[in-house]
Amino acid sequence: MSTGKINTATAAGICTITFSHPQSNSLPGTLLRELAAAITDSGNNAAAKVIVLKSEGDKAFCAGASFDELISINDLETGTYFFSGFAAVINAIRKAPKFVIARVQGKAVGGGVGLASAADYTIAHNNASIKLSELAVGIGPFVVGPAVERKMGTSAFTQLSIDATAWKDASWAREKGLYTDLYETFEELRSSRR
Question: Per-residue pLDDT averaged across 45-57, rounded?
Answer without folding.
Answer: 97
